[in-house]
Amino acid sequence: MRYSEIKLSGVNVRLAHFDINRKEAHAMITCDSTCDVNTQIKNLVCAIHELGSRLGMKPVFKRYVLSDASNQYHLLPKQEQCAVSVIQQSPLDGAKAVCMVLYQSDSTFSNIGNGAWADCSGRFWMGDDVSVPASDSETMTISYLEKLSEILTSAGGSLKNHCVRTWFFVRDVDNNYSGVVTGRNKVFARHDLTEKTHFIASTGIAGNSPDPKRLVAFNAFADLSLRGEQIKFLYGKSHLNPTYEYGVAFERGTAVDYGDRRHLYISGTASINNKGEIVAPGDIVAQTDRMLENISVLLNEGDCSWSDVAHMIVYLRDISDYNVVSRIIDNRFPDIPKAIVLAPVCRPGWLIETECMAIKQIENNEYEPF
Questions:
Q1: CB atoms within 10 A of CB 39
Q2: pTM passes above 0.85
Q3: Over the stretch 213-256, which tens digit does the pLDDT of each residue have?
Q4: What is the crossing angle of helices 322-332 and 284-301, to 10°?
Q5: In the list 141, 203, 225, 317, which could disulfide-bond 344, CB 3.0-4.6 Å?
Q6: Distance CA 295, CA 229 (A)
Q7: d(CA 305, CA 279)
Q8: Phi, psi of 287 (to 5 degrees)
Q9: Cα angle, residue 227 at apex, residues 226 and 230 outer, rounded to 5°
Q10: What stretch of H or E contains 197?
């Protein structure tokens, strides 16, 4: 992975660049916190476009992370040319907005409705789907997953075999996450996603939709070009327990092999041991260390390392932990594009959680290049 940091349109850009065949770049674009909110978001949007022009790539997915989504949403572009997620999880560096952007060369994604964009190779990014009616968290979760299943089935795929990654952002996570768990379990059981088959890599975390009536926002990535043998699930058994042991249905991580690269998707990972117990309750430093150790185990299981990580997002329950956590993360991973945001984890005792994605060059003639 090649890392760089540049200034564009008055904002800071951290970039991870994978430069093989179809090129990929992951950018974390952060506003200048000294500007007013209108200027911050205007500059952010300009930088996204300018960076794409410089790279010769197009965005395939954007996630705008805002400090006050209900009041800032109207400042964002009304029309986008890729899948888009907008979520309130206050950036803790003082900026009003951060945007994670995934760029690709030769991307041909087109809008297929309901927040989903697809390319001619059968790759789907599901951005925010406002067609799902606002309801309780269980009902919304079921609706999102069944809608995604319908989209994939109509294209000749399935939720079980082709959905690679999901995200659930939950308003008031301490009260509403249980509904997400119940809804997901019901849908997965209908689609034969079980402890005896497999689940899907996922993050379930606090986050507010711009619409205060919506208790859950949902995003996903799926790839209809995949065959079963291209996918490997990561368990980290020495450090982590199976998720079904505490009633939830997601994979700790998923590795996907193409002819020229491996994509590694690490789910939201916290300070936990292989018995499902919280490690170091109340100790943010020790929890951060254990969380990173757990992620290292998953990366290694996928034959990757931190030097292959294209981006990482760190979620904190307590804003007062930001300074100590940012020092640890910046010291250990100074180059990786990253954001640290305010977002309570789904289990109150967990003070911190991190998700990431890695990309590694491989050669496997059995599969098509990405």
A1: 14
A2: yes
A3: 999 999 999 999 999 999 999 999 999 999 999 899 999 999 99
A4: 30
A5: 317
A6: 23
A7: 23
A8: -65, -40
A9: 85
A10: none
